[in-house]
Automatic annotation (TrEMBL):
Keywords: GTP-binding, Hydrolase, Metal-binding, Nucleotide-binding, One-carbon metabolism, Zinc
PANTHER family listed in its UniProt record: GTP CYCLOHYDROLASE 1, GTP CYCLOHYDROLASE I
Catalytic activity annotation: GTP + H2O = 7,8-dihydroneopterin 3'-triphosphate + formate + H(+)
Annotated family: Belongs to the GTP cyclohydrolase I family.
Assigned GO CC terms: cytoplasm
Residues in GTP cyclohydrolase I domain copies: 9-187
Name by which UniProt lists this protein: GTP cyclohydrolase 1
Native organism taxonomy: Bacteria, Bacillati, Bacillota, Bacilli, Bacillales
Organism: Bacillus solimangrovi
EC number: 3.5.4.16
Ribonucleoprotein keyword on record: no
């Protein structure tokens, strides 16, 4: 994936400002194209990251019980409207054969997947599949709750509404007790 082209973004922002009837040379807007280009480079930094890289460091630990990191905040940009959506992710897995990863790596994987033009459903499935492919656990489960600005500031205009997505793999697909344990701990 190539690096962000700041100059192209700046030109595009100037065109957008002109297209909506603004003067891009107005004092308050003079540096806006530059600021937007810098912001896009930051919020889309995940385009050059593979979430699996965060699971390259594996520790051996005799632990085959639930690991859950909940309430991981994230921010992303809806790929349909290029407006933000934000919320929390809950990431759970049950290690197998002593393969565990650092807890911060679960949060970093969510962050890297969210930092690109995105769909909430894709964040959920990409994170869970990355865990399954790299850690090979008994199972993994990811739940994402988010508020989408494309629904709150435009269109249907329903602020406060949340979208919840889940992706369930391995043991969590067939074991209602294991699944219920994760859900009850998230609610706790």
């Amino acid at each position: 994936m190539s690096k962000v082209n700041h100059e192209q973004i700046e030109q595009a922002v100037r065109l957008i400002l002109e297209a909506i009837g603004e003067d891009p040379n107005r004092e308050g807007l003079l540096d806006t194209p530059k600021r937007v280009a810098k912001m896009y480079a930051e919020v889309f930094r995940g385009l050059n990251q593979d979430p699996k890289e965060y699971f390259a460091t594996i520790f051996s630990e005799d632990h085959e019980e639930l690991v859950l990191v909940k309430d991981i905040p994230f921010y992303s940009m809806c790929e349909h409207h290029l407006v933000p959506f934000f919320g929390t992710a809950h990431v759970a897995y049950i290690p197998k054969n002593g393969k565990v990863t650092g807890l911060s790596k679960l949060a970093r994987a969510v962050e890297s997947v969210a930092a690109r033009p995105q769909l909430q459903e894709r964040i959920t499935s990409t994170v869970v599949d990355s865990i399954m492919e790299t850690l090979e656990p008994h199972g993994a489960m990811v739940i994402v709750e988010a508020e989408h600005m494309c629904m709150t500031m435009r269109g249907v205009k329903k602020p406060g509404s949340k979208t919840v997505t889940s992706a369930v793999r391995g043991i969590f697909q067939n074991d209602d007790v294991a699944r219920s344990e994760v859900l009850s701990l998230i609610r706790a």
